[in-house]
Amino acid sequence: xxxxxGTLASLFASQAEIEADDEREQARGRGCAPVAELxxxxxxxxxxxxxxxxxxxxxxxxxxxxxxxxxxxxxxxxWLGRREIAGIEPGRRLVVDGxxxxxxxxxxxxxxxxxxxxxxxxxxx
Length: 125
Hints:
CATH 2.40.50.140; 6 strands; 35% strand
């Protein structure tokens, strides 16, 4: 009975739900923790896709901010002292490792500062 419900639910799932399931499955396959289960003040190994990348303008302390989404939630990645990093762009998949920090005022998500990262190959690479 449960399998039938799962099949029926998948028939009526939105595109966003299907994509979120795919992201969660890919992250789990790489042995990464789900973003939804991250806790501040702990190291984490997370995989996902970059939804957005924010570049700081000249005249402001350099920092590159990106939102990493894994299907269960998002975490902000902040590289201090950098205005850009080759390969860090929206739509790119990567695996990151670093210390999870509490959100700053005005930030809705947990943050990882200067995480180590591995760019994953794009489809067809």
